[in-house]
Every structure is written in C-alpha cells, then in structure tokens.
C-alpha cells in the first residue's frame, strides 16, 4: 500500500524556471513532511520539511506548500539551476510511530542550462 | 570526518552467497536504519535500531539480519543472496528516533547479485 504518492516521475525545466513536485498522502495521522534531495551516487539528504500547523515554509529558493484538507503538499523550486538536477523524494511520518519515514516514489529533476 | 559511512561501496557476488555490509556513524545519534533503494529508485525502510534495540522490522525476508554491536554501528548480513536482492542499500542515522528527526544517510552500497 503506497501511502505517499508523488508526481511527476520526471521533470525537465529550463534554467531560471520554476520546478513543482507534488505529493499526496492518505494517512491523516502523518504530522511531519520532509523533502529529501538525492544526487547520483549519493545518499538522500534533507532539503526542507514542514509540519501541518503551517501552510507554507520557505528556505531560500525552496518552498513547501501544504494543504491539510486536501492531504497534499508540494515542493516549489524557484529560479531552478542546473545544480538542482537531482532526484527529489517527499516523505511523511507520524510522531507516535517514531522515525518511520514513508517515501514517495521520487521525481527525477533535470534543469537544462 | 564522514558522518555516516558504509563499506563496501560496491559488492558484486554470485547467487547463493552470504555477504555483509557495515555501517558506522560518528554523529552520536541514538537511532540507525537500513533502507533498500530498488532500480526504480524507490526507497523503503528495512530495519531501525535505537540504542542497539530493534524498533522497526519491516516485511523483509529473514535472510536479512541486522546486527548492532553498539549504537554507532549497524551491520546488515544477507544469507543466500538472490537476484532480487540487487539494489542500493543505504544506512542512515537520526538523533533520537522520534518523529520529525532528520535522517542522515550514508553514501550507499550497490549490491549486484549475478
């Protein structure tokens, strides 16, 4: 049972454009929603995270938008750069189940120069 | 000063063999994990240990056995390797193991079973 669905599977954006990756979850008990970034040959690394008590969180060019009623959240990358080319994973967890992260399927982002 | 390290980085072996992957973290974290990333890049948790105690044990064949000699080390032993075990295995650690903890991943071990 896939509890976190992510789309698109792949995304190609021109340098300077906006990249948008969407995730939807089923478990309403989830209360922590991180995004991880993975470069080829490396392990994933935390990029940005949000809790459901806020609708938006911004860190530099990266913004998470969160819609609790729709059970959806998305990552926006403003002014996308070739160095942003990587695989992005959304994830979700709930405090009461400890640190068990449920990941989305991943989005391969390519930013063309 | 690598935070989470894994050895080996690459492992090529024949079906039926037994192999081990080692993981060490120098972050002082209480919780460590093993994840499997398949060919489609899907990441799935396999095991989690908190202070040497097993706390997450997903539906994983019992050919996979984790061992945590101390809270800085979590090793993964795989018996009777099968073709379907080919994947990248990531070790990770987090400070407490609570919800909201940042997980720090190692560089991965690419296992190829021939």
Descriptive report:
The complex is a heterodimer of chains A (113) and B (114). Helix content of chain A is 0%, strand content 52%. Chain A is an all-beta fold and 113 residues long. In chain A, the strands form 2 sheets. In chain A, strands 2, 4, 5, 9, 10 and 11 form a 6-stranded mixed β-sheet that branches. Chain A has a 5-stranded antiparallel β-sheet with strand order 1-3-8-7-6, with no helix packed on it. With 114 residues, chain B is mostly beta strands. Chain B contains no helices and 11 strands. The model of chain B has no long low-confidence stretch (mean pLDDT 93). The interface between A and B is medium-sized, with 27 and 29 residues.
Order of helices and strands of chain A: EEEEEEEEEEE
Topology pattern of chain B, helix = H, strand = E: EEEEEEEEEEE
Compute the number of strand runs of chain B: 11
Largest sheet of chain A: 6 strands, mixed
How far apart are the termini of chain A?
38 Å
Brief characterization of the structure:
The complex is a heterodimer of chains A (113) and B (114). Chain A contains no helices and eleven strands. Chain A is globular, with a radius of gyration of 13 Å.
Write the layout of secondary structure elements.
The complex is a heterodimer of chains A (113) and B (114).
Chain A: E1 4-7, E2 10-14, E3 19-25, E4 33-38, E5 45-50, E6 56-59, E7 62-67, E8 72-77, E9 86-92, E10 102-103, E11 107-112
Chain B: E1 4-7, E2 10-13, E3 19-25, E4 31-37, E5 43-50, E6 53-57, E7 64-70, E8 73-78, E9 87-94, E10 104-105, E11 109-113
Parallel strand pairs in B: 2-11
Antiparallel strand pairs in B: 1-3, 3-8, 4-5, 4-9, 5-6, 7-8, 9-10, 9-11
Notable characteristics:
heterodimer, A: 113 residues, mainly beta, 5-stranded antiparallel beta sheet, 11 strands, globular, B: 114 residues, 4-stranded antiparallel beta sheet
């Amino acid at each position: 049972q896939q509890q976190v669905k992510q789309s698109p599977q792949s995304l190609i954006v021109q340098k300077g454009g906006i990249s948008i990756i969407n995730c939807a979850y089923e478990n309403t008990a989830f209360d922590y929603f991180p995004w991880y970034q993975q470069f080829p040959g490396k392990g994933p690394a935390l990029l940005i995270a949000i809790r459901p008590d806020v609708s938006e969180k911004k860190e530099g060019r990266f913004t998470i938008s969160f819609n609790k009623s729709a059970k959806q959240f998305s990552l926006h990358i403003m002014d996308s750069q070739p160095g942003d080319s990587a695989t992005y994973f959304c994830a979700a967890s709930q405090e009461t189940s400890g640190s068990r992260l449920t990941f989305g399927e991943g989005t391969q982002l390519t930013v063309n120069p | 000063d690598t935070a989470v390290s894994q050895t080996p980085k690459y492992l090529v072996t024949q079906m039926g063999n037994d192999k081990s992957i080692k993981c060490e973290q120098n972050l002082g974290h209480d919780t460590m994990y093993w994840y499997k990333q398949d060919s489609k890049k899907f990441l799935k948790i396999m095991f989690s240990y908190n202070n040497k105690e097993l706390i997450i044990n997903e539906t994983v064949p019992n050919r996979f056995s984790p061992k945590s000699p101390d809270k800085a080390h979590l090793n993964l032993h795989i018996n009777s390797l099968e073709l379907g075990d080919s994947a990248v295995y990531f070790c990770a650690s987090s400070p407490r193991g609570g919800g909201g903890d940042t997980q720090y991943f190692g560089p991965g071990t690419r296992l190829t079973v021939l």
